[in-house]
Amino acid sequence: MNAGTPFGRFVIEERIAAGGMGEVFRAVQTSVGEFRANSKGPLQLNTWIPDPPPVRDAAAEARVREFLKGWGPEVAASAGDAARPDFGEQCEAFLELAPTAVSSIMGVFPESFVSRAKSKGIAWFATATTIEEAKRARDAGADAIIAQGFEAGGHRGMFLSDDLSTQVGTFALLPQIVQAVALPVIAAGGIADANGVAAAMALGAAGVQVGTAYLLCPEAAISAVHRAALASDAARHTAVTNLFSGRPARGIMNRLMRELGPVRTAVPDFPLASSALALLRAKAESQGRGDFSPLWAGQNASGCREIPAADLTRELARKLYERW
To answer: Could you read off the pLDDT of 137-172 as tens digits, one per residue?
Structure first.
């Protein structure tokens, strides 16, 4: 989840996933066309750097199916492969459509893409969760670093290690990355209001990325159960979990996380874990329950407002200006 970046951003991941292999270029083209038809502003596109092909672990998948049997044999039987968009085709689409910037999470772009992007004047913002990742992104040609603190909602951008003990909070991580790399650094994670923005800027941030605060805006493409959870007291209790996708991500605690524990080793590799819960999630959501849904949210949902995203952005800017 990387909403609310300094540039205008049109979220394309869901449409790409729906399009499947061979449809990625068209999906990106359609989304960018819709954005540009309605805005003259700068555009940022975001992508995940893909993992190596997932390793099938028959024993782990069998344990998942055994657990799912508690909600019906058809649920367990539905656990199958998860589609992955074609990364090469996605990169070609980005280069062809030439947004103002591209951002990445969970890795760095290959050298060939970076050089072609720079020749087209496309800036690259790379997500880093540690100093080592920030240096790797810098050396790979990133123009700016997004310092993702542990408070951030959604998937962790970590890519050099899967050790969660390496993950630290935004205001501990930010000044360390600022000192380590001679690049603009954008702070992300737990920032929901003007005070948080001001604090990040005081620690050397060149910009701030606000995500969770925008999730109740009408433009956010989240489910009804996700909206209800964000608007409730439940949003105050989040945890990092790997149950929903196979990769660590922060979301609001729900039944699945409580009953299994947020993090388990016996979870299929990313992205295979997501398909295992698909039918169970759909059935629960049809009954208005988010028991098995990834309710992504950061540790600070206090800024969530059910107002248009443009109004929320102006309000943040106005309060920051008044503070200064």
So the answer is: 999 999 999 999 999 999 999 999 999 999 999 999
H-type helices in the chain, by residue range?
Answer: 13-19, 24-38, 58-68, 73-77, 87-97, 111-119, 131-139, 170-180, 194-202, 224-230, 255-260, 272-276, 278-286, 309-323
Domains and CATH numbers, the chain: 8-323 (3.20.20.70)
List of residues 6+ apart from 162 with CB closer than 8 A: 248
CB 142 within 8 A of CB 128: no
Q: How confident is the model at residue 31 (pLDDT cuts 50, 70, 90)?
A: confident
3-state secondary structure of 163: coil
**Single-letter amino acid code for the residue at 177:** I
Is-contact 53 87, C-beta < 8 A?
Answer: no
CA distances from 311 to 106, 153, 156, 163 (A): 31, 22, 28, 39
Exposure b/e, 219-258, CB count within 10 A at least 16 = b: ebebeebbbebbeeebbeebbbbbbbbbbbbbbbbbebbe
Q: Which two tokens stand for residue 258?
A: 């409580």
